[in-house]
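<instruction>
Derive structure tokens from the sequence
<entry> Chain with its tokenised backbone below:
===
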Amino acid sequence: MPHFYRRFAMFAAFAVGVWAQNGAHDTEWPTYGADLANSKYRPLDQINASNFSKLELAWRFKTDSLGNRPEYKLEDTPLMVNGGIYATAGTRRSAVALDAGTGELIWAQG
């Protein structure tokens, strides 16, 4: 599985699981570094050493249709706001919005 898919899938599985258990405000990642202080931190405790091995993939978003060739080196820091995940994807670096609960494409631009 290409690096982007692994990274994005892990983020999605984490985000969906945590969001379902908490209010959206505490689990959102609205800026590149999580918050305006660039802390890269959220005080979440649902995932820990005892349950990490039990994590499962919640959904996968494929970017095959967002460019003229497969992209294997795409790295991104998705944002999560109000139930949506916003990221760039594909060889055209399209901006995409996904439903955080299902991974369904809401819109793509670019």
Notes: Residues 17-24 have pLDDT under 50 and may be disordered. The longest strand covers residues 84-89. The helical segments are 3-21, 24-27.
